[in-house]
Amino acid sequence: VEMAAQLSHAQRVTRLYRNSLKHLLSWTIDRQTWRKEALELRSRFDASKNVSDQRKASQLLEKGEEEFNYLKHPDPYISPKAPEGSKWERNLPPPPQVLVMTPEEEMWYEEACKYGSK
Questions:
Q1: Phi and psi dihedrals of 91, rounded to 5?
Q2: How far is 104 from 110, CA to CA, in rounded Å?
Q3: Cβ-contact 16, 69 below 8 angstroms
Q4: pLDDT tens digit string along 64-103?
Q5: What per-residue confidence (pLDDT) applies to 2?
Q6: Does residue 1 surpass a pLDDT of 70?
Q7: Among candidate residues 92, 94, 95, the one with its CA nearest the CA of residue 81
Q8: What's 49's DSSP letter?
Q9: How far is the C-alpha of 117 from the C-alpha of 89, rounded, in Å?
Q10: Which of 4, 7, 28, 93 could form an SS bridge with 34, CB 3.0 to 4.6 Å?
Q11: How far apart are CA 34 and CA 67, in angstroms?
Q12: What's this model's pTM, rounded to 2 decimal places?
């Protein structure tokens, strides 16, 4: 809530629209159905984009944010490779210091290579 107070009205509306589209995709799996719902959502935003009264625009935004919070998906879809996704940070490359062999390991490796070449 504190962060929303620092954003401009246009930024808050843009975030509300984007978040609404993302959560709408969590509710509708079929892309064609989602597209129809997305167009309806866009028409709702476009219907009030020319409101010139700042107080009325703020009220509309507050109502929209309340509606979004009420209707948002309880378990939204997260892309697997996105942060908090199922594949996030899976199979990261090892740190470089782990790849450096100790003298004992180098000796073992050389012996293993000689044994394998016989």
A1: 55, 50
A2: 10
A3: no
A4: 999 999 998 898 888 888 888 888 888 878 888 888 889 9
A5: 56
A6: no
A7: 92
A8: T
A9: 38
A10: 28
A11: 18
A12: 0.64
